[in-house]
């Protein structure tokens, strides 16, 4: 993947936070580029929320810097933050005001937001009907959507969301995911999401950055990008056959195909090979009339990989 | 400047859109009604001018203490309320410095105080007319202005203390609690410390500017100018601490 410097919207440089002797975030560096949805993953207490709060300037950092479109959040806060839309933990609003009045509050805080823009944003998150109601009567899902609306008001270059699906039911989570994907396209912005819900991240993000105990551990492309990258790499494949023993002999006799394990109960064998070697393998199995029932790629879920990266530390 | 005005408008709406907002105005209507009722029915021998009536409403050692309390209660939640609601996070991630946001809150608070004062005077005047007619116009309006000014000074001192406490404690309840303790201790302290000379530099010895009316200062070496200077220095320190803490704070 080509990296264009000008596409970098958010850059963390050696960001460090210490509280007394304890190091909460330790020299964390990563970039988020235009159009990307990046997931910030980590076990509880890894420093995700602290990192996000430092990015938006809610808490000060002990060392390092955060650049948003090239502006330092430390030395030119107003310029940097004007490119950021964010929800930090649950979005909280003034319950005694209507949804509209709440958004008007944030409109008045930024020059140049028209009423049309408010209506447009409300349309995107599907809250048009509820604008006249007091926020007190909103469900959590509606508050989340209002949260996204306030974050989008000033057309930011990057959207930063801290645990956006916390406390949402499955349909709410799905809705949120759809909104975010839609927004990333429609508004052409970068999104940084923190979460410990791995399956969620897997479905939503184009890249994940994994941190643990405040340190950068790993980063990984997900989905389409990942496949494109790994065409020549070996994949794990499970093959179910009629005659397992004969199949085993065939596989052992082939170059480029490694037998990973044998599952006699299911009459399956798991092999590791690249695409070309797999084609040869299947050809050979057919010629020997072993009877291939199914061929399935074994996908390691993000969860498995996550546990490998973080050394099996508890996720929840 | 207009962006700052917008911030003040925001703060004003945060105060006024609450249902409890009108409670203060309701109470400031009930109080003159009550005073007028008592005066009319039980103290018929007393000659009451409208100036005297307004003074009794606004003087902080009389009916004005209600006014002071009301202002204090509204001030207590202006910063801590944002912490308790969690809205502080969305408030501070806008393109405005924290000092500007805090200043807008302070301005909104002072605005509220002035509006409530004007309202109280107006309502007081109306109530007087209704109960006693237009007959008695004796007395100087300057007396009302002076009484208002004394009350405002007293109120502003307490507002700034509450403002600071609201920031330090992040809790409306704690702020109100501590403030009431201070008010209670104020009387005791004044009594205990009055024999020491340094007491004249203590804030609470100076908040009552009314004492200079009759010519004799409460302690040797004190004058109107002295008290105003002491108050000013304390105010700068208190508001300074408030801004410093608010600016440096990690919002978790």
Question: Can you walk me through this structure?
Answer:
The complex is a heterodimer of chains A (316) and B (252). With 316 residues, chain A is of the alpha/beta class. Chain A has helices at 48-55, 77-81, 99-108, 115-124, 140-152, 170-186, 198-204, 224-229, 244-252, 275-287, 302-309, and strands spanning 8-19, 22-33, 37-41, 63-68, 71-72, 84-87, 158-162, 190-195, 207-212, 215-221, 235-241, 258-263, 268-273, 292-297. In chain A, β1 and β2 form a beta hairpin. In chain A, α4 (115-124) crosses α5. The longest helix of chain A is centred in the middle third of the chain and has 17 residues, at 170-186. The radius of gyration of chain A is 24 Å and the shape is elongated. Chain A starts with 7 loop residues before the first strand and ends in a 7-residue tail after the last helix. The mean pLDDT of chain A is 85. With 252 residues, chain B is mostly helical. Chain B has one domain (2-248). Chain B is 73% helix and 0% strand. Chain B contains nine helices and no strands. Chain B has helices at 2-16, 21-42, 50-58, 64-85, 88-92, 98-132, 141-169, 172-193, 224-248.
């Amino acid at each position: 993947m080509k990296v264009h410097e000008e596409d970098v919207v958010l850059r963390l440089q050696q960001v460090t936070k210490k509280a007394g002797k304890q190091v909460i975030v330790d020299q964390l560096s990563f970039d988020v580029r235009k159009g990307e949805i990046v997931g910030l993953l980590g076990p509880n207490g890894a420093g995700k929320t602290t990192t996000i709060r430092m990015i938006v300037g809610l808490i000060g950092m002990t060392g390092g810097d955060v650049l948003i479109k090239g502006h330092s959040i430390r030395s030119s806060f107003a310029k940097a933050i004007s490119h950021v839309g964010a929800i930090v933990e649950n979005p909280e609003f003034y319950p005694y005001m209507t949804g509209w009045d709440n958004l008007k509050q944030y409109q008045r805080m930024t020059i140049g937001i028209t009423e049309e823009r408010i209506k447009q944003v409300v349309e995107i998150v599907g809250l048009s009907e509820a604008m006249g109601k007091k926020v007190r009567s909103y469900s959590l899902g509606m508050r989340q959507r209002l949260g996204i609306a306030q974050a989008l008001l000033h057309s930011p270059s990057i959207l930063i969301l801290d645990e956006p699906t916390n406390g949402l039911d499955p349909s709410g989570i799905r809705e949120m995911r759809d909104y975010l994907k839609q927004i990333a396209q429609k508004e052409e912005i970068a999104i940084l999401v923190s979460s410990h819900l791995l399956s969620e991240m897997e479905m939503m993000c184009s890249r994940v950055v994994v941190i643990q105990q405040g340190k950068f551990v790993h980063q990984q492309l997900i989905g389409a990008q990942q496949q494109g990258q790994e065409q020549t790499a070996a994949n794990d494949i499970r093959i179910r056959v009629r005659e397992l023993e004969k199949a085993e002999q065939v596989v052992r006799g082939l170059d480029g195909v490694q037998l990973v394990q044998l599952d006699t109960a299911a009459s399956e064998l798991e092999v590791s090979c690249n695409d070309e070697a797999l084609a040869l393998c299947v050809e050979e199995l057919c010629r020997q009339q072993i009877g291939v029932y199914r061929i399935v790629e074994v996908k390691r879920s993000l969860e498995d990989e996550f546990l490998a990266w973080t050394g099996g530390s508890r996720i929840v | 400047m207009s962006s700052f005005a917008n911030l003040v408008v925001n703060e004003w709406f945060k105060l006024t859109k609450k249902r409890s907002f009108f409670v203060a105005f309701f109470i400031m209507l009930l109080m003159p009604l009550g005073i007028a009722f008592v005066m009319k029915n039980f103290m018929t021998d007393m000659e009451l001018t409208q100036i005297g009536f307004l003074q009794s409403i606004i003087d902080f050692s009389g009916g004005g203490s209600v006014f002071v309390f009301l202002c204090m209660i509204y001030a207590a939640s202006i910063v801590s309320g944002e912490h308790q609601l969690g809205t502080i996070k969305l408030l501070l991630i806008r393109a405005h410095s924290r000092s500007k946001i805090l200043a807008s809150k302070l301005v909104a608070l002072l605005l509220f105080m002035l509006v409530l004062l004007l309202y109280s005077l107006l309502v007081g005047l109306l109530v007087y007319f209704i109960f006693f007619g237009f007959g008695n116009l004796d007395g100087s309006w300057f007396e009302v202005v002076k009484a208002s000014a004394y009350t405002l000074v007293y109120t502003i001192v307490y507002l700034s203390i509450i403002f600071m406490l609201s920031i330090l404690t992040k809790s409306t309840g704690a702020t109100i609690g501590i403030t009431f303790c201070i008010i209670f201790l104020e009387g005791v302290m004044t009594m205990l410390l009055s024999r020491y000379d340094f007491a004249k530099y203590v804030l609470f010895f100076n908040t009552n500017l009314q004492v200079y009316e009759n010519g004799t200062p409460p302690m040797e070496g004190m004058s109107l100018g002295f008290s105003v200077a002491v108050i000013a220095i304390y105010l700068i320190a208190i508001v300074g601490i408030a801004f410093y803490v608010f600016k440096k704070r990690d919002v978790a």
